[in-house]
Amino acid sequence: METPELEAAPASPVLTARLGDEERIAGEVEARLAHTVQTLDSIKREQLGSDRKEILSSIQDFVAKARDALAAKDLLRARALAEKAATLADELAGPRKPAK
Fold this sequence. Notes:
Blueprint: H1 13-41, H2 50-71, H3 75-93
């Protein structure tokens, strides 16, 4: 009995959509991290009290862990960590005065 040759199946639309979602999520995480780093760069560290310096350290830790998760393709974890870091950074920076 002859074994029929198997043909490669075309790419699944679900898989293709998922890959597109992964790229989108990764891009969102990268943008969120870039915003967070920019926000942190605008903070005058010498004016922070010890409690706010601890928050700054936590934010930096979240950013590092988000990057690690992104590199490991753990996108849900990366997104959650990036969101935490961005929220805390925005709160730490406080209200911004509009540029004149």
